[in-house]
Amino acid sequence: MNLPKAFEEKMKLLLKEEFEDYIACYEEPRFYGLRVNTAKISVEEFKKICPFEIHPIPWIENGFYYDGDQIQPSKHPYYYAGLYYLQEPSAMTPANRLPVSPGERVLDVCAAPGGKATELGAKLAGDGVLVANDISNSRAKGLLKNLEVFGVKNMLVLSEEPGKLIDYFPEYFDKILIDAPCSGEGMFRKDKKMVKAWEEHGPEFFAKLQRSIITQAAQMLRPGGMILYSTCTFDAMENEGTIEYLLTQYPEFEICEIAPYEHFVKGMPETTMSGNPEFEKTVRIFPHKMHGEGHFLALLKKKGTKEQQSQGKKNKKPTAIPEPLEMFFKDTEWKLEGDRLEIHGERVYYMPEQIPDVRGLRFLRTGLYLGDLKKQRFEPSQALAMAFTKEEYHHCISLKADDERVIKYLKGETLEVDDLVTGKDKGWQLVLVDGYPLGWGKLSNGTLKNKYLPGWRWMSS
């Protein structure tokens, strides 16, 4: 592979005697990974039902390698059920190493296409709030779909300049993830087009952008909260240099240890102006040392303590629950709270608790889109189907993964399901594959009218 001479010279200085080992890794194949959605299925249960060969990623407890040259996990019904996300192994590390607990307020600043946001949402397990933002509106649409497939229901999906969020979320978040735009040096092996992009916009260009984003995020983090900053580049200016800039502007931050793995490489204080040995707590992933592409991670904590302030629920007065909606939810285990409901025209949303007023922001989704109210009836959404478990909705049709009707359903076809239902059952059915939701159908006389979202349908290749 023809690498830019300037890049090679820089890597020689960075790696010294290991440079030849690094160059040799370009002759090796890339690695493919999938990450289990632990909000829907445990790792142990997934291993029991996984239909193809997988091998553990040793530093990611819910991550696995698969042979991308032999199999296509994106063409299996479990992928459509949101049981896993396909992600480069090293890219799983940032969301894995940010300690997120249910009930917290979490921001993913540069979230599309959703590889890290989906893991953060799974960690929250429906409790707390995930704000997933990406400045690109088109990329944010893909982000929204991935979060909905994963069944994340306590989210806001925004498409804004990070700086605009400060006025809405001052010192609001407990945890923030910044997977920053970067020069992409760590991805040269995976994607050769990144080399040309590097030549057009090098580290200097991205360092300015990164410093703007990280200082904006600092203002949205509560005292005692944590930021995980990551890039997929090796450049010290973009990595240690960006962290050093943050520390000069906001000295209340300190660098924290990252949960270790034997092949992580310590950060490099010698590349900084200060030479502060604390930079050794940051981490680099090199592809000649681990089975993954290049990455950098830094975990930061904002000193001080601040009790999480209640910012009030979005609706001060409870919204009356419309009768069609109330009737539908009688067939579920969910108990709707009127002060979390928002109705815009026909559309009904269920908001996360204790979020500020976000009017004025450009958002793609606020809360869980429940469905539409139409002439005294309620039509549930695809997002609601994915947010349910089989125990939470009382009318389910479960198909085996190898039943040919699963693919027919995902293609949008009508199904004959006499063998799976009683003659008395009719109306909205939650369609499952091996017990995991795929979407809706409407049952009448043993025939299931397909309600799978057209934009999500199986495309034959």
How many angstroms does the end-to-end distance come to?
A: 31 Å
The CATH topology label of the domain at 5-30 and 87-302 is Rossmann fold
How many DSSP H or I helices?
A: 13
Largest sheet: 10 strands, mixed
Helix content: 10-25%
Average residue-wise pLDDT:
95
Could you tell me the number of beta strands?
A: 23
Instruction: Give the radius of gyration.
Output: 23 Å
Instruction: Tell me, briefly, the overall form.
Output: globular
- Class of secondary structure makeup: alpha+beta
Strand fraction = 15-25%
Given as residue ranges, the uncertain stretches (5+ residues, pLDDT < 50) are: none
CATH domain class of the domain at 5-30 and 87-302: Alpha Beta
Characteristics:
Rossmann fold; Archaeosine Trna-guanine Transglycosylase, Chain: A, domain 4; ten-stranded mixed β-sheet; globular
